[in-house]
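Quick one: co-fold with magnesium ion.
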Amino acid sequence: MDTLLFNENNYDQLIQAADMIKNGEVVGMPTETVYGLAANACNPDAVAKIFKAKGRPSDNPLIVHLSSFSDAAHYTSYIPELAYKIADKFCPGPITMIFPKNDKIPLITSGGLDTVGIRIPSHKTARKLIELSGCPIAAPSANTSGYPSPTEASHVMLDMNGKIPAVIDGGKCSCGVESTVISFDNDNTVRILRPGFVTREDLLTLNCNVIVDNAILNEIAEDEKVSSPGMKYTHYSPDAKVSLVEGSFDDFAEFARNNKNQDTYFLIFDNDSLDINCNFLTYGNNSTEQAHNIFACLRKLDELGAKKVFVRVPDKNGIGLAVYNRLIRAAGFEVIKI
Ligand code: TXA
Ligand code: MG
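Sure, here it is.
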C-alpha cells in the first residue's frame, strides 16, 4: 500500500481522512507541536495499528486528543480544579495533562496504566479532524520509535510510507517540539514530565507549585521507577552519533578546529561563524527558533551522511529547556564540557 498525501486545504480529503479514522485506520495528522499518528483512542484494534506502525513498546502510553477540555471529564475519573485553570490559560495549545482514566479509554491506549494524557491541540486541521472523526484521537509523534519527531509531512512520509493509508500535509509545525507533559502530585502541585512550549515559568503564573522531574535532565538508572514511561526509552536519535558540547563559542571554535573530519558535522547557532573549513548546520539563534528547527536539523544530518555531530549546547531556560531535553536524549546524555 502506498501512503496517500492529502492537503489540509482540500476538504474532501479531510473527510476521507476522518472516514479512515472512523473505520479504524491510522492517519498522519499535523499539529502545532509535531505531526502525530492519529487513530480512534477508544478502538483497541486501531490503536494497535499505531504501535505497529511506529514499532513502539506496548507499555508507552498514547496521548488522547480532544477538541475541547470540557470533554476531558468523559474519559477521566478525577480532574483537579487547578487543571481547569491551566486549561483556561493554555488550552487549546501545546500542553498535555495526565489524569486517572475511566473505562472508556482501553488499556492498550494507556500502555497498561490507569491514567491518561489529555491534550487539546490548537492546530486548525487537527481540530477539524477530531471534529469530523467524532471520536477522541490517540496520537503519538508520527516518527519511527526512537527517531527524531516529524515536523513536516515529508518526514512522516519517510518514516511511514507503506505503513499507514494517508498523511495530511499541514506544512511545517509552528512549535517544532512536542507538548509539555504534566501530572498532578496533589491538587496544587504539577510535575513537568516533558518540557515544551508551555514552560515552568508559564505554569508558575497560576500560583501553584511546579516540580521539574529529575528525569528531564538526568539519565535514569535501568531499575529506577519513572513517572512517564517515555523517559526510559531512547529518543530523538538520528543515525549519526550526537554529542553536546558545552562552553563558550571561542572554545567551541577551537574544539571544531581540532575535531573536524569528513563525516563530522557541527550544529551551531545562526549567528555563530566558524572561520574554518568544516561541515556545519545551524539551528536558530534563540530558543523558539531552535525548537522550531531542531528535529528537521537532526533528520537533515542523516540525509547529509553525517556520522558524528557535535552540537553547541542551547540555552536551558524557558522553551530552551525543551530543546536541551530533546538534544541531551538524542545524544544519549553525552555532554563534553570544554
Ligand atoms: O505534542 C505532542 O504531545 C505530540 C502531538 C502529536 O500531539 N504527541 C506526542 O506523543 O509527543 P508521544 O507519544 O510521542 O509522546 C507522549 C509522551 C510519552 O513520553 C509518554 O510516555 C508520555 O507522553 N505519556 C503519555 N501518556 C502518559 C501517562 N498516562 N502517564 C505518563 N506519561 C504519559
Ligand atoms: Mg514521541
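If it helps, The first strand starts at residue 4 and ends at 7.
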